[in-house]
UniProtKB/TrEMBL annotation, chains A, B:
Oxidoreductase is among the record's keywords: no
Pfam families: RecR_C, RecR_HhH, RecR_ZnF, Toprim_4
The organism of origin for this protein: Candidatus Merdivivens pullicola
UniProt record, GO biological process: DNA recombination; DNA repair
Positions of the Toprim domain: 84-179
Gene3D superfamilies in the record: 3.30.60.80, 3.40.1360.10, 6.10.250.240, RecR Domain 1
Sorted UniProt keywords: DNA damage, DNA recombination, DNA repair, Metal-binding, Zinc, Zinc-finger
PANTHER family named in the record: RECOMBINATION PROTEIN RECR
Protein's name according to its UniProt entry: Recombination protein RecR
Function field: May play a role in DNA repair. It seems to be involved in an RecBC-independent recombinational process of DNA repair. It may act with RecF and RecO.
Amino acid sequence: MYKQKLPSALLEDAVAQIGMLPGIGNRSALRMALYLLRQPVENVRHLSDAIIRLRENVRYCSVCGMISENDICSICSDSRRNASLVCVVESLRDVLSIEATGQYNGVYHVLGGVISPIDGIGPSDLSISSLVERVGKGGVSEVVLALSTGVEGETTSYYIYRQLQSTGVKVTAIARGVGFGDELEYTDEVTLGRSIADRREFRP
Amino acid sequence: MYKQKLPSALLEDAVAQIGMLPGIGNRSALRMALYLLRQPVENVRHLSDAIIRLRENVRYCSVCGMISENDICSICSDSRRNASLVCVVESLRDVLSIEATGQYNGVYHVLGGVISPIDGIGPSDLSISSLVERVGKGGVSEVVLALSTGVEGETTSYYIYRQLQSTGVKVTAIARGVGFGDELEYTDEVTLGRSIADRREFRP
């Protein structure tokens, strides 16, 4: 790691703090701190304020758990969306990715992560019971699981599936397969195997 | 550019502000904002404070112009350093780079940039007159120019050289040549040409 003695404790503290951000090493942190020094003080104050206001004043949708300005988020409160179709995702980023496709008209349920005994994350740390409750209240006809593949995601999907069984709701999962434009030759065998097992009728 | 409609104005503002930092695109800015949301509020407050305190409370050495905690920086006030040898650099980053070599025992003079008519930076925007004044006061035997190569750096070096002529101080420039471990084959012709012209006696 690139680490230098800096001539000012203020600068050292700023570099150390900026360096805690994901993907920012010491070198970039120093570059950013020096950049901030050259900016008008109002701009730096705006950045500083935006960061702390985000953390202190953020709210979460009481229905789906997504970041929201109001008690109920813009997606849950949109009457044009199909509230009987609930897609379960790990995080807001997944919501944004699915929204960016423009292919989904249902609503979401943000878990806040996946079950991970190694990281000490159990079912009670995630919004699973609120999902079961939400489905139990009725009005939901299908739950689409869109969690990551891998042991933790699969475990979480299975756990949710078991929890939802008593409600009788239809539980589906997003399709896994060879991506558009991907070469079969370079696709890993698990994905390719799954795409053969999950083959569907050809509709030209 | 990757740009998404975000479900919260607070988040949108934070992402926009973080995205102003050098080398941070919208995607990384979003990743950082979501990371901050998951951190304890004290950590986020510490980051926010460190940034604004740096900008508001930073001081500059009254002798060399480097960032400093006190009126005179740690290098200028170090009696073990040779105060008669002054190395002229563009920025604090160059000071840090030279300090990291452990090969320099003199002091510095931080210009704050180079003369650049395109960016509207003239000699009066840089700490050139304070350098001439500093040398004029006596006690300086050699000024080492360590500015970047290229038209702007060369122009600035020449301008400083001319300004210092009346003081009679010895003006030198750092050596340019083929880097250690570099292949001649892949060295640009200007550097290679300079390294031949500036050849020195071989001392095994």
